[in-house]
Amino acid sequence: MVNNTPRHVVEGEVVDTSALISWPLERLFGSLASPKQKNELITNHPERMDIIDAIEIKWENPDKESIRKITDISKETGDIAGLSQIDIEILALAIENDCVLITDDYRMQNIAEYSKIEWRSVNTDGIKNIWEWEIVCMGCKMVNKTPEKPSDKKNDLGECLECGSKLKIRKKK
Predict the structure, then answer these.
(1) Where are the domains of the chain?
(2) Angstrom distances, CA of residue 155 to CA of 24, 42, 86, 158, 169
(3) Domain 14-120 falls in which CATH fold?
(4) Is the pTM of this model over 0.90?
(5) pLDDT tens digit string along 38-74?
């Protein structure tokens, strides 16, 4: 007899850390999240992590193929410069499990929309359009290459190799 049961069954949605922090507990039952989000909660909201430990959240790492797919998409849109590795993992879980993504992060919503991942906001209205981003020098205005991977420091894109000024991300024209 062949077992056609999926590798794992996800009852809820894939939730980002803002949902883990602010959603009522009954909304989180059966949700899927990255184990790395536990560290964020322990560091920033330890009392909430104690409560969340008591409910049935599925903590799962995404597979490498899903991470690669989301990383490639985020490079295409230019969003990678504003994402963390945890953001990539949450998006990868959503695409891998064909789940609704719950996030207030506009970059994550942008990638979800671009990738045809269904998403909902936690506390905001969310994005209205898909945007593409580029890295530009604040001094000489030269457009720089999009990073290959997310940064540990979301707002620190480094300095321009031409003039040494700070780099920033802006919407492509």
Answers:
(1) 14-120
(2) 30, 23, 15, 9, 9
(3) Rossmann fold (3.40.50)
(4) no
(5) 999 999 999 999 889 888 899 999 999 999 999 999 9
